[in-house]
Amino acid sequence: MRIYKVGGAVRDRLLGIPVTDIDRVVVGATTEEMLSRGFRPVGADFPVFLHPKTGEEYALARTERKSGRGYGGFTFHASPEVTLEEDLIRRDLTINAMAEDDHQNLTDPYHGQRDLEARILRHVSPAFAEDPLRVLRVARFAARYAELGFTVAPETLDLMRQLSESGELEALTAERSWKEISRALMESQPQVFIEVLRACGALKVLMPEIDALFGVPQPETHHPEIDTGAHTLSVLEQAAKHNQPLTVRWACLLHDLGKGLTPEEEWPRHIAHEFKGLKLIKAVNERFKVPRDCQELALLVGEYHTHGHRALELKPSTLLELLQSFDVYRRPQRFEEFIAACEMDARGRKGLEHRSYPQADYLRGAATAARSVAVQPLLEKGLKGPELGEAIKRERLRALKAYKEAASI
Description:
By secondary structure, the protein is α+β, with helices and mostly antiparallel strands. It has helices spanning 8-15, 31-36, 84-89, 112-118, 133-145, 154-166, 174-185, 190-199, 202-206, 208-211, 228-241, 246-254, 273-276, 278-287, 292-309, 316-326, 332-347, 358-371, 376-380, 385-408; strands at 2-6, 23-27, 40-42, 48-50, 57-60, 62-66, 74-78, 99-100, 106-107, 120-121, 151-152. The protein is built from 20 helices and eleven strands.
């Protein structure tokens, strides 16, 4: 029995960045031997075991054969005869197909270290094209390591393009796709993830609503970058630079989908794009079974982001309706995330990345003013039911009028 660290642990150590997850492969062992040493089996698809003391994962060396469509369409074979090189060749990228023993002796049959030094993301073997999930994985690695200068090898991009055209991407489950998408959005340069998907034709298959934004112009006075797709990538880039959470990044990605529906004869204006885009946002949310908090914020940002930009001009009654829509009294954090998304949208414009956004503090102040209305005095007057609700609304509107007047002095 020989045990090796493989994949990301080796790659990141060689890059000199912190190692977070350690995967181990066991060569020359049987399931019975692992069990006799106290390892606990997990996973139904192939032999993976948990160390009896540390709880870390150890997988038996295995080969795989394509047996059906999609990410799960593989038959695995694990036995003591499977070599380390045979296990490594089934991996996606050369930089993930290296192994080392406890003394850091490197096994690198597919030149991963050379590609690390050249900053290249390259597939290990033609079998790469058998797994559609690898299109998303490579795009995610491109987003993670873009700041180190990594790019996708042209021949790997060609294979990704073949996969995109083959129909295999449509066999991916919503859960697997969302796992990769959500992880990619939290990388340091998530816009690169979208760029790579677009370059290989996968964006058109997975998220045609976003792909449709490229080539759609916007008024240059508000959008010096003009192209709606380019603007969306810039907004996503700003969200990452400002360490926004996944909910905000997802909303930033989808906020302008309605502009893809504008007839060409109406370009570069996009009247009512906020409302037109809601059905598209819903469709994307449903396609990937997106978590509820991400779904809700994306829809709210899509509908109200222009309200955010015009916050200083809004009538108190419109401002109150906005606050009600977000339920700022019970869910203040969601409104804070809306403000963040609006600010990223404002900054995601060519040459305006460092602009101030006074609307943010104004909206926060409005929410505070509305929340400051005391309900107890109204209860003490004997108000209840719809009558109480109307009284609360009147008091909040009065508070917002006072707030707006004070802010304009």
